Amino acid sequence: MDRDLRDARVRQLLEEMSRPMVYALARAVDADVRANTYRHHLIDAAAALPLPVLRRGLADGVNVTDLRRLCTRLGYSSAGSAAKLADRLIAAVEEPTARIAQWRPFEQARAFARRLQLASQKEWYAFARGRMPDKGELPADIPIAPYAAYAEKGWTAWGDFLGTDNPARHLIDYRPFEKARAYARALALENAKEWYAFCRKRIGNRRSLPRDIPSAPDRVYADKGWNGFGDWLGTGRLHASKIKYRTYTQARAFVRALGIRNEPEWQAYCRGEIHRSSPRPIDVPTNPQRTYKNRGWVSWGEFFGTGNLAPYQREFRSYQAARDYVGKQGLVDSKQWRAWCAAGKRPPDIPGAPDLVYAGKGWVSWGEFGTGHVHPGRLQRRPMREAQAFVRKLGVRTKTEFMRAWHAGRIPKDIPLTIDRMPGWTDWESFLGVS
Fold first, then answer.
1. SS3 labels along 231-291
2. Shortest CA distance to 154 belongs to which of 115, 111, 105, 121?
3. Is residue 100 part of a domain?
């Protein structure tokens, strides 16, 4: 690299450094440097240093935090040790196309940013990283981190840079609570969800909500009059923690008078879908199981007056007693069992799923339970010689006749329909005794 160009680029780098950084650099390579030396004299002395000496001075003399800030301001990665940061800066000096300090003036960069009509710092970074292609690309001479590059050259805040005029929250002088509440009530919004949706609305890149009214009034006015969004918006609704509910007995009497039978109906009523002529009073909770826990709550069945209990709360008959009762009903299979249950004939203390409730408590099979149905895999099959004698006695002469007799129930189930797959089988002629 040409010496004049190298000296010019070294001087550019030094101009970006604060006086303490330049002094620390000069002190690291020359013990005679005095603390009261003028900044431009320090820069003149350091600019004449060879690049290896300059790199060593940066790595050994300058605070690593200051080096990271310098790298960020110039648009380079700030990760790594002091030695790596020094290498990164010297490499930039040696590469003529690398950036040293060629940013646009602050006023021009700010004018460019304002034309983009971005609403926040988050949107600026999305644009800078190419995630908003409709806005174009970030020019090479405008930094991604303008607050660092222009820290001492005009930067005040993101609101000024982007043109949103939004100051930092801690700098805003908000309206008094009563005046802010009057503004919110004039919007005629129904709830907090609608309030936050209104706060997100924009006119250009500025929010429609006045600057001196907070989007989070519950935080700003927490100890200045805040009493919930019902009071803020003028709807009169109160947060559940501020409502004095009826006693459990009173709430239960109210709900039973409506004739609601189950929890889905109750939820539909709370949403205003049924019993619209009798809307839910504010002092009757939508979640009584939580509100009245340890204050009288038993179950939904008791609350509605139906007497229905959740399965885990029911006490069923013993397996033996349930089996004896079901065995007297004349059910022949599980299909008839389901139809019997659907007809409402099953007593409440006999479960609809006995195979689950009585698992490990005596359950064997549906047939043993009393329906008469036994799974084919559980049948004790008749020996081949006895099955052969029984079928020959019926006068069955062909395989087709055997199958018809089996389906008609003339052949018992302990002689399987697939008897030709059983051990000891030879052929149908031998089995049926025909030539």
1. HHHCCCCCCHHHCCCCCHHHHHHHHHHHCCCCHHHHHHHHCCCCCCCCCCCCCCCCCHHHH
2. 105
3. no
Same domain as 262, residue 234: no
| pLDDT higher than 80, residue 56 | yes
How do residues 126-163 score in pLDDT, each as one tens digit? 998 888 999 998 887 888 788 877 877 888 888 889 98
Q: Considering the domain boundaries, does residue 70 fall inside one?
A: yes
Give the span between the Cα atoms of 254 and 304, in whole angstroms: 10
* Rounded Cα–Cα distance for residues 251 and 168 (Å): 48
According to DSSP, residue 369 is labeled I
Torsion of the alpha carbons at 96, 101, 104 and 107, rounded to the nearest 10: -170
Q: How far is CA 107 from CA 149, 160, 199, in A?
A: 13, 11, 30
Look at residue 319 and tell me if it is in a domain.
Answer: yes
312, 342, 369 — which closes off a domain?
Answer: 312
Residues 7 and 85 in one domain: yes
User: Maximum Cα–Cα distance for the chain, whole Å?
Assistant: 128
89 shares a domain with 14? yes
Domain holding 57, by residue range, is 3-94
The residue with tokens 């409502």 is 243
- For the four alpha carbons of 407, 411, 412 and 416, in that order, the dihedral sign comes to negative
How far is 98 from 93, CA to CA, in rounded Å?
A: 7
- pTM for the full model? 0.41
Main-chain dihedrals φ then ψ at residue 341, nearest 5 degrees: -65, -40
Residue 167 lies in a domain: no
User: Angle, to 10 degrees, between the axis of helix 3-15 and the axis of helix 39-47?
Assistant: 150
* Mean pLDDT of the region 69-93: 87
* Residues 340, 344: Cα–Cα separation, whole Å: 7
Mean pLDDT of the 231-242 span:
78
Look at the block and give the residue holding tokens 């709830």: 191
Give the three-state DSSP class for 202.
Answer: strand
